[in-house]
Amino acid sequence: METKIKKDWFGREKSIAELHYDSKLWISEIEFINDELRFLDNLLSMYFIDCLDLGLKKNIEEFVKKIATEKQLISTFINLINKHEKILVDLIETNSVKSNKNFLESHKKLEREINTYFKNYKKLKKDIFNTIENIMKKKEQLKISLK
Amino acid sequence: METSELTYKKFEHNKSINELEYDTLIWISEFEFIKTELAFLKKLIQSNSFKSRIPNLYERLQLFIQEIDLLQKNNQRILHKLTKQHNNLSGELYYESFQLIAYEKLAEKIFNYTTTYQNFKIRIFEYLESILKQE
After folding, report:
1. pLDDT tens column, B71-110
2. B1 touching A, CB under 8 A?
3. Do A129 and B37 touch (CB under 8 A)?
4. What is the pTM of this model?
5. CB B17 within 8 A of CB B89
6. How far apart are CA B107 and CA B23, in angstroms?
7. Which of A143, A60, A63 is nearest to B49 (CA)?
8. Within a 10 A sphere around the Cβ of B20, how many other Cβ atoms?
9. Nearest Cβ partner of B15 from A12, A31, A36?
10. Which residue of B has its CA nearest to A41?
11. Rounded to whole angstroms, how far apart are CA atoms B2 and A54?
């Protein structure tokens, strides 16, 4: 289900603990995606020969490229989140988180970018699932026709 | 791969009804996606793509299927609750305290489900990758 409501915290302020917890959740999710990408990469390798037989070589090549891009984005985001966290720690020490509008804006911006990344990643996964399911179906049909 | 060690945290804040509704829609979208993913993982396991000479392969895969069945059941239950919650919040200007309590209970349930699901995926990926390496 798609939603068009844009998240801007609906006019309320987030607490320092909540801002910090956001970063922890992002890092945990992104690190998990990193492992998942490796699995998807291996899975595509497993079906590579079948893809050649079924004329789906281009699809696989496209997925491999996209996976490589996703991996690069992972390190970019981890660096950005770590830097963002460092700034938060500095602001906590000087007791100026709430008064620092730039920081709050950069948190919102990072949140939007990460959410877009998650959304695009899900789209990639769905496309990979559909292609692999298609291969499995065709392999099964081929087996039946050869019996 | 490491399992998730994050714990659920509840924050004291005054969320508006719009934010509760927004969170609910995001969760519905997430759980719809998990439904698709679980169906894919089940098909993958049942597809005979993995070689049968690996010891206890069939038994291990059956255990994963049982876990998927349970995850699918719980996913369906949570999706049902989320849809109900969305219907209750939709079109209202304010929420009652019992609605906030129900929202928070569901938020914790969702966190626990996604943690369990993520840990399940870590185990299944590790196992399937180990099989792929042997082929």
Report:
1. 999 999 999 999 999 999 888 887 888 888 999 999 999 9
2. yes
3. yes
4. 0.89
5. yes
6. 9
7. A143
8. 23
9. A12
10. B129
11. 36
Q: Give the nearest chain A residue to B127 (CA atoms).
A: A39
Domain boundaries, chain A: 15-146
CB A24 within 8 A of CB B11: no
Identify which of B6, B15, B22 has the shortest CB distance to residue A5.
Answer: B22
Nearest by Cα to A33 from A110, A120, A134: A120
Residue pair A32/B56 in contact by the 8 Å Cβ criterion = no
Contact status of B65 with chain A (Cβ, < 8 Å): no
Give CA–CA dist A147/A129, Å, rounded.
Answer: 27
How deeply is A127 buried, as exposed, middle or buried, from its count of CB atoms within 10 A (0-12, 13-18, 19+)? middle
Nearest to A136 among B43, B118, B135 (CB): B43
Nearest Cα of chain B lies from the Cα of A10 at a distance, in angstroms, of: 6
Contact B129 A42 (CB under 8 A): yes
At A62-108, the pLDDT tens digits run 999 999 999 999 999 999 999 999 999 988 888 887 778 888 889 99
Q: Which two tokens stand for residue A143?
A: 């087996």
| Whole-angstrom distance, CA of residue A19 vs CA of residue A55 | 48
Rounded CA separation B126/B119 (Å): 11
Residue B26 has a CB neighbour count (10 Å cut-off) of: 16
CB-CB contact of B50 with B61 (8 Å) = yes
